[in-house]
């Protein structure tokens, strides 16, 4: 019998009931807003079907609003304490030292709105400064329509309406690959409705075209787009790092099914790197080399099922092989389906690791938070 304590005492802090203020000084805070797969947990099919055995994980997640099995689409928030020691040669957006904590969001998928409602008030988040997009699948981008609700806002008196209204105080800085940006503009993806077909007003050029064509003016997000990786050039092994309000992010290419590339991110101090690897099936050699070279303290990685293989995502068996090679100090799983039950994860982990092997692998859950020095 192997034994793996999967409780995260000493590894993380939890987003508690009631309110937490925004971190004022000291370390930055990293929060996993979503740790589920695209279908989320509870999986809707498990709630409505009448045939077959009951899915206990989904039923428990549906019944218990505090369940650690309640999982939205993969997403991460960094409440970043800007450091003045970051590399000044990097492309820099905003001033690192203008007004304290920067809220940097990674992906905004289908469940983004509920993640905001569940966690932003408790975390003291009053607005988003930046959005980093890993790839253009629905579970990473379809929530960007709700960015309009997480802008910093300035109140003004509308005399005609006789009430206080709000306007966007500053744009959100968004970072993505060339391929994601092109698909946002609707110029590449002809098989599926592109983001611009659904949200044309989120692309500045399309906004102007719409207004010129006599469309009514809408209250929409103001987003400044930055292309930070040229994935269309498949000969590039490693894209250059970029800076988000002084936080240096090293993008890494990950194969997310066939030839489709999703971006992962390495960041943090050299002796305690953090790897955010949300959607991956295979690491190309240059990416694996970067992971092997890095001194990774915390690896956050895709794990769809326990042992069943999938074409576009890793399963826990594959994650275990990566952990054995890369040797991060601790590993936290995201992108998990109802295959994972928080209450019985020890047994699942025992089934895929060797006896006596301690790889420090833990299940993430929505709202898990880490104090990190960045
Ligand atoms: Zn289920
Ligand atoms: Zn995906």
Automatic annotation (TrEMBL):
InterPro entries in alphabetical order: Metallo-B-lactamas, RibonucZ/Hydroxyglut_hydro
One family name in Pfam for this protein: Lactamase_B_2
Domain Metallo-beta-lactamase: residue ranges: 103-151, 226-335
Name of protein: Metallo-beta-lactamase domain-containing protein
Species annotation: Salpingoeca rosetta (strain ATCC 50818 / BSB-021)
């Amino acid at each position: 019998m192997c034994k793996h304590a999967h409780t995260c005492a000493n590894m993380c802090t939890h987003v508690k009931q009631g309110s937490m203020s925004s971190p004022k000084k000291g370390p930055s805070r990293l929060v996993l807003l979503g740790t589920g797969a695209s279908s989320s947990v509870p999986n809707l099919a498990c709630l409505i079907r009448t045939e077959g055995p009951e899915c206990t994980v989904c039923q428990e997640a549906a019944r218990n609003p505090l369940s650690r099995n309640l999982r939205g689409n993969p997403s991460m928030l960094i409440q970043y304490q800007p450091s003045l020691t970051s590399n000044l040669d990097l492309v820099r957006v905003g001033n690192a030292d203008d007004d304290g904590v920067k809220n940097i969001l990674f992906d905004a998928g289908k469940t983004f709105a509920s993640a905001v409602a569940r966690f932003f008030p408790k975390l003291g988040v009053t607005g988003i400064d930046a959005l980093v997009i890993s790839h253009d699948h629905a579970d990473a981008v379809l929530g960007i329509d709700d960015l309009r609700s997480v802008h910093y806002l300035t109140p003004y008196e509308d005399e005609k309406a006789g009430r206080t209204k709000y306007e966007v105080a500053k744009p959100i800085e968004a970072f993505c690959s060339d391929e994601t940006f092109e698909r946002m503009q609707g110029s590449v993806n002809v098989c599926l409705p592109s983001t611009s077909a659904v949200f044309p007003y989120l692309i500045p050029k399309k906004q102007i075209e719409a207004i010129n064509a006599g469309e009514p003016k809408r209250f929409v997000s103001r987003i400044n787009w930055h292309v930070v990786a040229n994935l269309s050039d498949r000969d590039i092994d490693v894209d250059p790092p970029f800076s988000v309000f002084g936080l240096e992010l090293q993008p890494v290419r990950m194969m997310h099914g066939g030839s489709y590339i999703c971006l992962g991110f390495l960041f943090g101090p050299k002796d305690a790197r953090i790897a955010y690897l949300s959607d991956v099936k295979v690491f190309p050699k240059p990416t694996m080399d970067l992971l092997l070279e890095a001194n990774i303290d915390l690896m956050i990685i895709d794990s769809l099922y326990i042992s069943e293989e999938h074409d576009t995502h890793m399963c826990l068996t594959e994650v275990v092989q990566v952990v054995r090679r890369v040797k991060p100090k601790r590993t936290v799983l995201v992108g998990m389906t109802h295959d994972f039950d928080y209450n019985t994860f020890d047994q699942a982990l025992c089934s895929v690791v060797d006896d006596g092997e301690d790889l420090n692998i833990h299940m993430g859950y929505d709202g898990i938070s880490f104090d990190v020095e960045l």
